[in-house]
Amino acid sequence: MSKNLLEQLREVTVVVADTGDIQAIEKFKPQDATTNPSLITAAAQMPEYQGIVDQTLLEAKKDAGAGATQAQIVSLAFDRLAVAFGLKILQIIPGRVSTEVDARLSYDTEATLTKARDLIAQYKAAGIGRDRVLIKIATTWEGIRAAEILEKEGIHCNLTLLFGLHQAIACAEAGVTLISPFVGRILDWYKKDTGRDSYPAAEDPGVLSVTKIYNYYKKFGYKTEVMGASFRNLGEITELAGSDLLTISPSLLAELQSTVAELPRKLDPAKAASLSIEKISIDKASYDKMHAADRMATDKLDEGIKGFTKALEDLEKLLADRLVRLEGEVVASH
């Protein structure tokens, strides 16, 4: 009997679940899992995860002390919630979970370092080693510099909101563990910019971007792993079969699982080694110049940071509202 696409994909690529939904992770049994502020916010609103949210809030209230304001309690709970979801996910998967630094710190190297070290300390206190956690940071110049320092400390990083080759090269030169180029968001930008409704999978601008990054890394022997992310359709995934990792939403994982067809490997280190590619060295001046010249990367990085910031603000409001209800329930029970 023929294998489905998901089974074949797993033979050439590490499959990662792009979700904060623990039940979906249990269903598809990925190697790794990755979350972001939008996914955590969505999961925190699901009835089945109310217990995690409530427990995190009540522990934060207790640890914040008697005189703590609502804002202080929410801030503490907010910092712990992503780790609380990460710990639940790590009970299911054999590999690593990605946990994101507050997107509002994306242009502040020192604040990013402080937050990343705090997240790792929380995991350590729960008995989780550094080998099972990736700290997720937006691919700004400041974020890349923070990741370079963290990697030297043995804290592994996943650089997210990555849209251009200049970002990818800077990450590789900084010794980053893993990058997450956003395939679907690149496609979204080109469709809007050109007015086209669709692209054939092999000509999809997001697919072409990740293929170029993958080939560059393999050609020059960089150890940084490429994990394609943010997919809009099945074709984008099948065109990137062979990428080091792919992080895929539960709906597309289900589609891969239910589709029986041949899946040829598209990305291959041996093929990349034979390509003629020019090596580029990146410093801040060249990064800034290439970033400014790439309208798509400039637009999508800015939009992505704003989008994650909005999700974080929504989550803070959700936690504040829930805290009021919990405190009301405690008063009522007395």
From TrEMBL:
The protein's enzyme class: transferase
Localisation per UniProt entry: Cytoplasm
Active site residues according to the UniProt entry: 136
Pathway: Carbohydrate degradation; pentose phosphate pathway; D-glyceraldehyde 3-phosphate and beta-D-fructose 6-phosphate from D-ribose 5-phosphate and D-xylulose 5-phosphate (non-oxidative stage): step 2/3
Enzymatic reactions: D-sedoheptulose 7-phosphate + D-glyceraldehyde 3-phosphate = D-erythrose 4-phosphate + beta-D-fructose 6-phosphate
InterPro entries: Aldolase_TIM, TAL/FSA, Transaldolase_1, Transaldolase_AS
SUPFAM superfamilies for this protein: Aldolase (SSF51569)
Record EC number: 2.2.1.2
Alphabetized UniProt keyword annotations: Cytoplasm, Pentose shunt, Schiff base, Transferase
Major subcellular location class: cytoplasm
Family under the similarity heading: Belongs to the transaldolase family. Type 1 subfamily.
Stated role: Transaldolase is important for the balance of metabolites in the pentose-phosphate pathway.
NCBIfam families, per database record: PRK12309.1, talAB
UniProt-recorded name of the protein: Transaldolase
The organism of origin for this protein: Nostoc linckia FACHB-391
Gene field: tal
